[in-house]
Amino acid sequence: MKVNGVEIEETFAEAFPMYATRxxxxxxxxxxxEIAGLEATGFGSSIIMSPAESGIEKFVPPEKTPDxxxxxxxxxxxxxxxxxxxxxxxxxxxxxxxxPTTRAFDGLPPVKRKMxxxxxxxxxGDGYQRKVKMFxxxxxxxxxxxxxxxxxETIAVIKGVAGGNVFILAENMDAGLEAATRAVKAIHKYxxxxxxxxxxxxVRSGSKPGSMRYPKLIATTNHKYCPTLREVAPDSExxxxxxxxxxxxxxxxxxxxxxxxxxxxxxxxxxxxxxxxITAGNFGGKLGPYKIYLTEALKAVEDIVx
Amino acid sequence: xxxxxxxxGFVIDPLNNIHGEVVDIGVKDGKIxxxxxxxxxxxxxxxxxxxxxxPGGVDVHTHVAGPKVxxxxxxxxxxxxxxxxxxxxxxxxxxxxxGIAVPSVTTIGYKYARMGWTMVMEAASPPLYTRHTHHxxxxxxxxDKGVNLLLDSNWFILExxxxxxxxxxxxxxxxxxxxxxxxxxxxxxxGSAEAWSLGVATKPLDVDEVIPGTSxxxxxxxxxxxxxxxxxxxxxxxxxxxxxxxxxxxxVSTINTIKAVADIVNxxxxxxxxAHIQFNAYKGDSYATMTSGAEELAKLINxxxxxxxxxxxxxxxxxxxxxxDAPWEYVLYHITKWKWAAGDVENETxxxxxxxxxxxHIYTNVIQWGIGLELALLVKDASxxxxxxxxxxxxxxxxxxxxxxxxxxxxxxxxxxxxxxxxALKRLALPAIDREYxxxxxxxxxxxxxxxxxxxEKFKGHLGVGADADIAIYDIDxxxxxxxxxxxxxxKAIKYAAYTIKGGEIVVKDGKIxKTIYGRTFxxxxxxxxxxxxxxxxxxxxxxxxxxxxTFNNYTILEQELHKPYAITPV
Amino acid sequence: xxxxxxxxxxxxxxxVEVEKIIPDNIAGKSLDEVLKIRVYEGNRRRTLGExxxxxxxxxxKPAEQEIIFQRNTCRIRRIGEEMSAGKIIIEGxxxxxxxxxxxxxxxxxxxxxxxxxxxxxxxxxxxxxxDAEGFxxxxxxxxxxxxxxxxGMIVIHGNAGREIGAHMAGGAILVEGNAGILPGxxxxxxxxxxxxxxxxWPGTHMIGGKIIILGKxxxxxxxxxxxxxxxxxxxxxxxxxxxxxxxxxxxxxxxxIPGKLLISVKNNPHLKYYEQFVEEVKDEWVEIV
Lengths: 306, 571, 289
Ligand SMILES: [Zn+2]
Prior knowledge:
By secondary structure, chain A is α+β, with helices and mostly antiparallel strands. Chain A contains six helices and 18 strands. Chain A folds into two domains: about 1-15 and about 160-300, 2-Layer Sandwich (Alpha-Beta Plaits); about 20-160, Alpha-Beta Plaits (2-Layer Sandwich). In chain A, a hairpin with a 2-residue loop joins strand 1 (about 1-5) and strand 2 (about 5-10). The two termini of chain B are about 30 Å apart.
């Protein structure tokens, strides 16, 4: 398929289920909400080496948060339930508890499966903590030097979707980066329920699982899409004229959110000049239960105009 | 009683100035007598021509009885069904037992006797459980034995030291040694067990650190107990497992320990015996960079006459560590992450048991192996060195023959080093040491030195007239045989003695047990100022009601509870 | 195949250890030599000929040797220890440690088996037509973690005792009857399937491997977490129709690569509580709270 003269490959992104959670962090103003959110989602790029995959999803206006203060939604992904719980406890206690003026709420109240997190972190109160009903939630109040920190007792855990992706093949680095930046911006603007866990939402070093040379490595460079290996690697998939490739990795709470995010990303990237081709990464469909076709993704965002 | 005449043997007896001569030895009524006193009509004559005749071996530091040894057996069922789970029967006897690292009680005595050892000292017994220790020692055949009593974290002593009441410390020690029928004063990582039992310390204490909850430092304990041992004329100097055992960089603590008590010399010129010094001679700041502190320690020990030590030599095999140094076992458990048993003895001490395997490819283990040998070879006077593996901590005592071979033969060391971690060997001084022990030094380190340290050199550790007839005869002839070449023969000869004679009876012949007898249990009976003793006893009695789960009267072990008690009264 | 038949000459009142009576030791020997192989009766050393009536023939190669124990065999222990080929048939009950450290071949027990059946087994096949006592395919007391059975297959047509497959590191155990508590305790690898009920706590401390239970399970350790409902399971390449509750654990020992617990949905209505956790996330839930 060709849109605006850019080829969109007939392929799909392969996604996996992964344990996920969403936490709503509110603060006195957007500035502190953002700082807390950024801190809590730090070092959360890829599960290959990071302790979790995490990212900021969205800012939430005061009227939509339980305590009527500006907030930020973050998501954390992990392979197993206990590891996710460990990560959420670590991140909330080290990054949110410590950040000025913040409070932490469950970001998915209707979900039935909950992790008990608040009561664990509230032990920081050393016996002075107390449980209250407030904002329509069960909250733990922890006395801290600033005043009081509040955290919801339970936080939802679901099977999220990880591994949605879009490859942007560009004429040069600047064009590629511009397109990728626009794509990430659009995801944040138009999509709810999806995050882009990598730095600035963009991956410049996409990887393939395993190694052809070093048996113990879990992941190595995706040599098929390295422009400098076009002549070297026999299975290179770089078309002529491509000098740079960026990947946007998308995790989300539902397949729909990830699909939508991929569609928005493609649409936004197409608007940028100097793009040669859009494609996606998969492992032949053998590993992941979710196949998200690029064409379907585009169809899902037909009604979004920008 | 049996009379024996050992003819034509090649005798080494340094205490009687026999440095390798053919001398006949007579035995009568369990004592050594001039050969002429033996009535040949009734005597059995042993032809020892071409054989080495030496006094029976003495082990100054070994863990063979008591609660933690039993816990070690419980913790290591796998040690007891090795070799297909068969019972290890000792040839020549009906009773059997199992176990390699922690053998069954009975087999311990037999195994010692087969190597020619006739006296062992249980290295550490908590006072409250010493009755248990005696029960096991009473069931340990052949060898003579004694108990070193753990006294460093005892609440009474800590309190008296806080009050700076040295005479009360003395009286208490006099009482408790007699009450528990024990022989000597043992300090294990002084003060650490107390700090650890209280839950305030998670690592061993250094010599100058104040024990939490008190105003006492380990150094104060060392000095107070050394003074007590001197004042009470206890034959054995303080027997110290120094602070910071097992922790890299601890050779400094060991030096500080020695310096703290070097001036406090007992009536026989000794000030301190350092147990398994290998574990306390580490340099460096982590296990990855650990090196040997043997040179520094050897230099210091060479200048002091009153300091002795046993090696705590590592042998490469699976074993069980057991010590009253509970905080160290806590640290070790977190390294091995397999099994751990910990114990708290009310008001007195604590302990821990952790299985451990010394491996040839592990850097740290090879450094440990090297340190033991370096120390034994760098200290010039072999009568300051005693062979030990701190059984079973660094390996079982059944490996003594191998250690003797390493000391007597450079080739034996070189052959072992071929199998070891190369990086570790590069950082050891051992490969450059050429010294080889002579047969006389072998006798010094295994017979004379331990007997002198224990303070029984009047009747053990030599073959002069009047000594106990504890004799080992090995099937080697030092005149024709060179151990540095064919060390394997030496190992075999010591492993299975040609004859072991204990108390005038032949108990081992050609490596087989031929007779079961039971040795004596030595204990110290000292005297102190009766007025202070009375005061201290009143104090003990009142505190027993308050603190102990058993009453004062039940605590005291009576002489008739032991099979063969033998009191040593200092003069 | 050459068959050697062993019948006890008298009723054994103490344990008899026959760890040397395996095809590897017998094949290629003359019958006279075989009669002289030592066995233990209690603490007494005996020869095979003293304790057993031996008939039949001896094969050239271990793989062609069959040994049959007949009559009262329940006090005979360590049958087939470290055997690597051939076949041993016990027509009655077997004592403890049958097939201990087995390296290959076949061991068939027509009666019941004592404890530690196939302990530390490496390869081969064991079939029991009666019941087996505890510690099937496990390690001995006090040994290193995960040093139990590491390969081969054990099939028990009756019930099994407690702690089967403890410290298992490979291979498979199939119990057609019920099993006692703690099957697959400290399991690292391998598969266990129990067609009957389990008395409780399957897979405690497991760090890998798979346990399939088709009957009722009294209780599951709280350190397992619920993962999904699976339509089918796989046991040694065979498909087992479900559905199954899939639990992962044991979180106490390893949170990264957990073991699997597959428990029949049909026979365990008391686990229905977990089903609420498999809900799909509805898209409207994602909309901002
Ligand atoms: Zn010791």
